[in-house]
Amino acid sequence: MLDYLKSPVQTFQDFLVLTGRSVRNLTRPPIYWRDVLMQMDSIGVGSLPIVALIGAFSGIVMTLQMSRALSTYGATSQTGQVVSISIIRELGPVLTALLVAGRNASGIASELGSMKVTEQIDAMRALGTDPIQKLVVPRLMATAFMQPLLTAIADFVGLIGGLLIAVSVIGNTANQYWTSAIDVLELNDMVQGLLKPFVFAIVISLVGCFYGMRTSGGTQGVGLATTKAVVVASVWVFVLDVLVTQIFVSLQ
Amino acid sequence: MAEPILEYSNVGLSFDDKRVLSGVSFSVLPGDTYILLGAAGSGKTLLLKLAISLLQCDEGSIRLLGRDITRLRESEMFDLRAEVGILFQEGGLFDSLTIAENVGYPLRNQKNSNTNEDQIEARVKASLDFVELGHTLDKFPSELSGGMRRRVGIARASVTNPKLSLYDSPTAGLDPITAHTIMSLIVKEREIRHTTTVLVTHRYQDGAMMANYRWDKNRNTVYRAAPWGEYANLRTTFLVMNEGRNVFRGTQQELEACRDPYVSQFVLRQPAPKPGAELYQGYLPA
User: Fold this and answer.
1) CA–CA dist A69, B125 (Å, integer)
2) Looking at chain B from residue 98 to 127, which residues have their Cβ under 8 Å from any Cβ of chain A?
């Protein structure tokens, strides 16, 4: 039994070591700003179309689903409220995080993994740069900065998607929808909606880097590292979602 | 006696429960050439990685440029690594950077390197000209052949004028002609920059070339420093590794005379070239 537990505990410990070293390096020069910008471009701008698309569809689907339930109580005028709360608090952050995990945790893991198996990470150390500083820190910073922005965009596009359905299918006026959607939001919702993506971003980028950096076993190992990174990052997104939600629910 | 540049004392290393190195001791003096021969998995590459602390040994100690690096922290290693050039087995070039950026990487990223951009460009160009690849500056590593990538690796390893050069199987997987070119460049590097060299290889010819050949600046080619059948012994020591243990150490003569069944398998007696071939790599009386 203990043997079965040994490996995951060891892995988690290694992950914490990487996290510790990355956080410590955040304040240490040199920060490779060029790499940070390049990662922001690939993680943030690169994910924008797909994040916006998924945001719009989730808004549309939410509104369609809610319309039936709400009409049962004759409360279709509250559509905006329901859509806005569920998107801002939950769907926007989680769906965006899952997309970024699928798109970028895998990208990071496969890039770093290939570098590892072709000795580029060793070469980096041999040539006088710390791979944590050069590879992990820029990815961590870029994801942590871009993820809340991506989520905000996904939220906004989701609300627009909801608006389209609320007006065209349910028969709300645009004004009615927006007013109920915006009025219901409190500070708690906004903070929760932006804090979640920030927390998710840290985990997604670090998990991607972690599995990339410990790749072994050639090209097959790269594939394995990529798969693991996506699965583990996605699971962590849900686990942390529960934790953060619980904290905010108890604050209310 | 000069202080050794690199010194292994009773070095041992294990991965999980498997011992991969044990009791390895030798020291490399300035100007020496060490050839590490051995079968795959005998621990040759590990010794190179230990030399610049890419791995840390479990037993014994390693001194690099007069400092004990056995328990040195990663951040303290960077200054020492700046004094060492290393060529990785597959070149270890960064795919995402151009050839010029790859070669300039150590100059731009080493903490104590305060070279300005013009100097960097000039040194990158000079270093690439040295390996006769001055025309590839803006290409990416994927656009070059395997041999050319190794040559870029040599250029990158030597751009900082290191005191010690480490080469990990520079000729592995290359055809004999390209392998000869690579080895000539390593001889040239040793001759012109007076670097101390540690070369890991499984090809006896590579070691024999390091032991007997010098660089002729005027003819821009290598030449044998002793007549055929004799040994020039250019301060070259051969080390044979077997399953993590050092089973032989000595000169080329001693290696050829060794009757150990494992060690003697690495020795290949080359016939003297046909008349006329001297033009290419013949003996030149000094």
Assistant:
1) 71
2) 105-106, 109-111, 113
